[in-house]
Design a protein that fits this description.
The protein is about 55% helix and about 0% strand. With about 110 residues, it is mainly alpha-helical. The chain has one domain: N-(1-d-carboxylethyl)-l-norvaline Dehydrogenase, domain 2. The longest helix is centred in the middle third of the chain and has 13 residues.
Length: about 110
């Protein structure tokens, strides 16, 4: 993808807008929820979520979007559980959501008995 210049995709363009891309119904969290509902492992996806919490990739001008800058600052201060419950709208009282939260916070272990 990044090797094909015709696509115009840069790492920054693909990775920016972290609050949206870490939303409940978007790429990473949606995939983890689907796996958790069906009893599938999602440790690699949980690792991608954790990586996104530190995805500090400025654009060609050296700047982050304001939303990404604020998100990264908050995530650094408040941690993964904050991001999962606030940005990704996961409910710790829901068994499926709790499984995803536990897996991400535990460092990728897919905790099935949460």
């Amino acid at each position: 993808r990044f090797g094909n210049r015709a696509l115009g995709d840069t790492v920054h363009r693909v990775g920016r807008d972290l609050p949206r891309k870490l939303g409940r119904d978007d790429r990473i969290v949606g995939a983890m929820l689907l796996c958790a509902r069906h009893g599938l492992r999602f440790d690699a996806i949980a690792a991608a979520y954790r990586a996104a919490l530190g995805f500090d990739c400025p654009d060609e001008s050296g700047a982050l979007t304001p939303a990404d800058r604020d998100f990264l600052s908050d995530a650094a201060d408040r941690g993964a559980r904050w991001a999962l419950t606030t940005v990704s709208s996961l409910d710790p009282a829901d068994p499926v959501d709790a499984r995803v939260i536990a897996a991400v916070v535990a460092g990728g272990a897919d905790v099935a008995d949460v």
